[in-house]
Each structure stands twice: as structure tokens, then as C-alpha cells.
Specification:
The complex is a heterodimer. By secondary structure, chain A is an alpha+beta fold. Helices cover 50% and strands 22% of the residues of chain A. Chain A has a six-stranded mixed barrel. Chain A has a two-stranded antiparallel ribbon with strand order 2-12. In chain A, strands 3-4 form a two-stranded antiparallel ribbon. Chain A starts with a helix and ends with a helix. Chain B has helices at residues 45-52, 75-85, 101-106, 116-129, 145-157, 175-192, 203-206; strands spanning 3-14, 17-29, 34-38, 60-65, 68-69, 86-89, 163-167, 195-199, 211-216, 219-223. Chain B is 33% helix and 28% strand. Chain B is an alpha/beta fold. The mean pLDDT of chain B is 89. The chains are: A alpha+beta, B alpha/beta.
């Protein structure tokens, strides 16, 4: 058998070619991993948003959009008193009336659109992972920002710190604190007092009510919605709502895959072409080794080792960049902000794709160099 | 006889034409002989050399080399047979550029079940024989043409094959290097009892051989 060092040394024949092969593999693996991280990050953020025990009560006909939904303000109180078996703790029922409003937030002369949620003190009870990272719950004239709100608005995180004055619809508010709801889209929002937002937006309706089930069944809330025709509400499981929302973003994810695939294809094709040129230029040398007695499978194995070494070199760079430069980066989209996570599955995808490229890229050169008769190859 | 060719013909199709570079050739070569194959281009001498080396197979006829009817061997069997029986010396050496002279010579031994120590011993012996022990760690690009060919000869003999085939081994060398290579080949026959078949266009090179065969249009026309 030809030793592995033979394959390793063959990489030094032309460093430019080796770099082209490794670079092509690196780019392709990186794009694939980035696309996978994007897909997983967005999916996970949308699915993590949902608590299986939560139910959203929103306006009939607006089941697909909380923003468009309008329900009477009294809905929360009626729900709390009508439906038994809703979760409660310390005597407080987990029913949270909310307004979701897309407005412009003016910060240091820069105006950016953002999601503003009007909430009361019940909100942390239904969004159970809520954490107040700094500052206080907003008092009148104040609001608090999710830890990714600045990213969502294209601002630096330091632009929305505690004490900063911001303007919404000509009214000035002071940032009272920063909150987190790990892995959730809520982290890209701005939260303020429900009644203040009602006044600010001059509306007399809520967007929705979020309730947490305990002993009650989903059917009980469906029955509530059906019996209270005066409220004109519908109920939807929180996980179903965000699953539908995730489906809404499927074309964006598909576009990310498509763009990655197109660029990766160019990189792969360039790498394949270089691999082909590198190996087919050694046709006579490989024929001479066959003449000495090396069987074709051993030579093919040696070429595979060489191809794997070059591609794994590229994969190593791609994994390094993914782990140390891209992991944890935040990407924003219309619905919020999510984090690119390069977990073991995504990294394995990058590694596996590099191995696959090494193997597939070898087929044509092996066919051209080792298949013809020895006499033809030596000529 | 060490080599027996009985009525061997080699033909192949090229487009619509059937080319027959070797036609019904019958030939015997003794063990320990040095034979030169001469003839104009297209006379069939390289075809004959490739058939003897098991690199090509005849279209018909019987070809026995070192006691094996190689016409009956498959492509993979021929490879294993070559590793044991043939040392091939190419006109353009065909050394692997990323390997040192030592590693190039060691290549055929990687196909044998030998220990590293045994391989080392054999490589050193082969390099000694071609007087290149002091160039063992040099890469081919650091050697002259004559030295490269000597490394190629060391590679051809290191596995101790009984038959050496050489395709114009001096064709790419200056006169002094060519003379040294021919002397080395002669020495391999005289001292080690190797059988050598060499293709050459050069009458001076052929003069080193014991026997000179002239081929024309695929047939043997003289045997000196």
C-alpha cells in the first residue's frame, strides 16, 4: 500500500491547487452550515416561543395574526371568571391581556419600526421564561426593552440602555430595564404598560389574551369562545399559532438554502475542476505505478486519501470559522431576532458534506486516470 | 526457455481500421540474456516489450514468461505478476516527484510482505548498485537525467525481478550518461543474471546487448 504520507506530500505539488480545493470545500461547507444554522435558529425560535399549555384568545377571523386581531378589553376578566382550571399561582390567574403594535421608536434622532407589546403584570406568568435582566418593571412613562430589540432595529445594544429616552408617537418614554425570554421572539420587542399603550394608540381593544391551562382542556376554551358570541373571539393553541407563523417564513428559509446552494455549487464546481486537473495531470505517473504492480484500487485509495486531506483541511477551516466567528451571531427578520447556533448536528453536516465532496470529486479523475489501458496511459 | 512467444499477434481497432502492430511473432529468449529490440517507428518493438512486461495482452498466440502463461492472467493478476517478475525502466524515468530517491526505490517493495528493516536493506543495496547511495535523500528535481535513470533502474531491480524491460532507457540522456546506464544494464546481466529486453533506436546502445532483433511492420526481420 502507498503510505498516507505519500498522499499528504502530493498536496504540496501545487499549493495553489490545494488551496483552491480546500477553499472551495471550505466555502461550500460553511454555506451549508450557515444555511442549516439559519433554518434551525429560525425554526427553534418560533417553536420555543410556544408553551404547550398556553392558549391565545384573539379576534375571530384574525387567527393568523395577533397584530390584526382586536378583542374587547373585558375579555381577560370574563375569561378568568368563566373558565375553571386556568393556571394560577399566589392567587393570581395566568391570564395576560396584551396589545401587539408595530410602531416607530425614535432613539437619538433615528426612527426604527419595532414591535411594541402592551402588557400588565400577568405577562411574566404566562411567558414563564421571562427574566428581568436589569432595571425595573416599567412604571408610567417608562418602557422596557428585550435584549435583542436593539439588534432588531439595527442599533447597537448600548443605544437602548436603562435611562435612555425614546419617543413613540410623539410621546417620550424612559427605558426602565432590559428583559429576556431565552430563545423567544419576545426578546426583540419593547414592552410597556398595557393601559398606556391603549391610550397611545387610541384604541379600546386588546390584540389578544394569553392564558395558561392547568386543569382546563383546550375544548373548555373553545366552548367559552363559542358561548360568548358577544366577544367574537377564537382560541388557538400557542404552539399551533407559532407553527403557522413558522410556515409563513418557509419561503425565506427556502431562499436561504437556494442562495447557499447556488454559491456552494460554484465553489464545489471550481474545486472539482481543480481536483480533476490535478489528478488527470498525473495520468502517466499513475500508469507507471500500475506498471510497477500497484493495483488500481490501491492507487484510487491513495487519491481518495489525498482528496480527503485537501477537503478536510477546508472543512477544518470552515468548522473553525463556524465555531469561533459565526456561532451566536444574531440574525433579524421581520418577526424578530434569532441566534445562529452551530451545534453538533450542524457541524457534522459540514464535515459530512466535505467528505462527500472529496468522494464525489474523485469519481471523474479516477475514471480518466485509472480506467484506460496501461499502454494508452503510458503513451 | 525463459520467454516463449508463439505466434503472437496484437491488433486493435482505430476508427474503421484494424491496426496490427505485431503479427504472428514467434520468439524464444534465454534466461540471463540481454536482448535489444530495434526497428523503425511503428515496427512493433514497444508493443512487443509491453506484451513481455504484462502491460498489454496479445490478441492471439501464447506468451510464456518466467514459467507463466501470461495470456491467461486477468488485469489484476497481471499486476501482481508484474510486481514479482518485472522491472520496468521507462525512457522518461517516471519517478514520483514528491518522493526522495530512496522512497522511489522503495515503492515496489511496498507491494511485498517485507519488514521495514528488510525494505531498508534492499533499498540501500539497490542504491549501492547504481552508485547513488549519497543521493538517497534527494528529490528527482535535484538529480541529473542520468542520476534519475539510475534511480529508476534501482527501482526496477529492488524487488529482484528476473526480467527487466527497458523502453529506450538512454533516449533522453547525453552520451556520457547513456554510456554509464548501458554499462550498468550490462553489469546487471553479467553479475546478477538478470534477463533484459531493451527497445532502442541507437545502434551503439544495441551493441551492448547479446542479441539484436530487428522488427519491421510487426514482424521479425533479423536476429543477430
Amino acid at each position: 500500500m502507498l503510505p498516507l504520507s505519500f498522499s499528504a506530500r502530493n498536496l504540496s505539488r501545487s499549493w495553489i491547487r490545494t488551496l483552491q480545493i480546500s477553499g472551495g470545500t471550505c466555502l461550500a461547507a460553511l454555506l451549508l452550515m450557515a444555511a442549516a444554522a439559519f433554518e434551525l435558529g429560525m425554526r427553534r425560535t418560533l417553536s420555543d416561543q410556544a408553551d404547550p399549555a398556553n392558549v391565545i384568545i384573539l379576534g375571530k377571523g384574525s387567527e393568523e395574526s395577533i397584530q390584526r386581531s382586536e378583542i374587547p378589553v373585558r375579555t381577560a376578566a370574563i375569561l378568568s371568571s368563566s373558565v375553571k382550571g386556568l393556571k394560577s399561582s399566589l392567587g393570581q390567574i395566568h391570564v395576560s391581556p396584551q396589545i401587539l403594535y408595530n410602531g416607530y421608536l425614535d432613539c437619538a434622532g433615528r426612527k426604527d419600526e419595532t414591535s411594541i407589546r402592551g402588557v400588565d403584570s400577568a405577562a411574566p406568568r404566562v411567558h414563564k421564561d421571562f427574566q428581568l435582566l436589569s432595571g425595573n418593571w416599567p412604571a408610567p412613562g417608562q418602557l422596557m426593552v428585550g435584549r435583542h430589540a436593539a439588534t432588531q432595529m439595527g442599533l447597537s445594544p448600548s443605544a437602548l440602555i436603562e435611562g435612555t429616552k425614546v419617543v413613540i408617537d410623539n410621546q417620550t418614554f424612559t427605558i426602565s430595564g432590559t428583559f429576556a425570554v431565552p430563545g423567544s421572539l419576545l426578546e426583540a420587542e419593547v414592552w410597556m404598560n398595557l393601559h398606556e399603550l391603549l391610550q397611545l394608540t387610541k384604541r379600546d381593544t386588546l390584540s389578544c389574551v394569553v392564558a395558561t391551562l392547568d386543569g382546563a382542556e383546550f375544548g373548555d376554551l373553545e366552548a367559552f369562545a363559542a358561548s360568548r358570541l358577544d366577544l367574537e373571539v377564537a382560541v388557538v393553541r400557542e404552539k399551533d399559532y407559532y407553527a403557522r407563523l413558522s410556515g409563513f417564513y418557509a419561503p425565506i428559509r427556502a431562499m436561504v438554502w437556494l442562495c447557499s446552494a447556488l454559491v456552494a455549487f460554484g465553489a464545489i464546481f471550481g474545486g472539482f475542476n481543480t481536483l480533476f486537473t490535478a489528478f488527470s495531470g498525473r495520468k502517466r505517473e499513475l500508469a507507471a505505478l500500475q506498471a510497477i504492480g500497484f493495483p488500481r484500487w490501491q492507487l484510487a485509495l491513495s487519491l481518495l486519501q489525498e482528496s480527503l486531506l485537501a477537503c478536510l483541511l477546508g472543512a477544518a477551516v470552515a468548522l473553525f470559522v463556524a465555531i469561533y466567528a459565526l456561532d451566536g451571531l444574531q440574525a433579524s427578520f421581520a418577526g424578530g431576532v434569532f441566534t445562529l447556533r452551530f451545534g453538533p448536528g450542524v457541524l457534522l453536516l459540514g464535515l459530512a458534506s466535505s467528505v462527500l465532496l472529496a468522494v464525489i470529486g474523485l469519481i471523474a479523475p479516477v475514471w480518466v486516470t485509472l480506467r484506460p489501458s496501461l499502454v494508452d496511459s503510458l503513451r | 526457455m525463459f520467454i516463449t512467444c508463439q505466434n503472437i499477434t496484437k491488433s486493435f481497432k482505430k476508427g474503421d481500421q484494424i491496426i496490427t502492430p505485431l503479427q504472428a511473432l514467434t520468439l524464444d529468449l534465454e534466461k540471463g540474456s540481454f536482448t535489444a529490440l530495434m526497428g523503425p517507428s511503428g515496427s512493433g518493438k514497444t508493443t512487443l516489450l509491453n506484451l513481455l512486461a504484462g502491460i498489454d495482452s496479445p490478441s492471439s498466440g501464447r506468451l510464456e514468461v518466467a514459467g507463466t502463461d501470461i495470456t491467461r492472467l486477468s488485469r489484476s493478476q497481471l499486476g501482481a505478476w508484474r510486481a514479482q517478475n518485472i522491472g520496468y525502466i521507462f525512457q522518461l524515468y517516471h519517478l514520483v516527484p514528491v518522493l526522495t530517491a530512496y522512497e522511489n526505490v522503495e515503492l515496489p517493495l511496498l507491494l511485498q510482505p517485507l519488514s521495514a528493516a528488510e525494505r531498508h536493506k534492499r533499498v540501500c543495496t539497490a542504491l549501492d548498485l547504481v552508485a547513488l547511495s549519497d543521493r538517497a535523500e534527494h528529490f528527482p528535481r535535484q538529480l541529473s537525467g542520468g542520476q534519475e535513470q539510475r534511480v529508476a533502474i534501482a527501482r526496477a531491480i529492488v524487488a529482484d525481478p528476473p526480467l527487466l524491460v527497458a523502453d529506450e532507457p538512454t533516449g533522453d540522456l547525453d552520451a556520457a550518461s547513456a554510456k554509464a546506464i548501458l554499462q550498468l544494464l550490462r553489469q546487471l546481466v553479467n553479475d546478477l543474471g538478470k534477463t533484459i529486453v531493451m527497445v532502442t533506436h541507437d545502434a551503439k546502445a544495441a551493441a551492448v546487448a547479446d542479441r539484436i532483433l530487428h522488427l519491421e511492420k510487426g514482424q521479425l526481420v533479423s536476429d543477430i
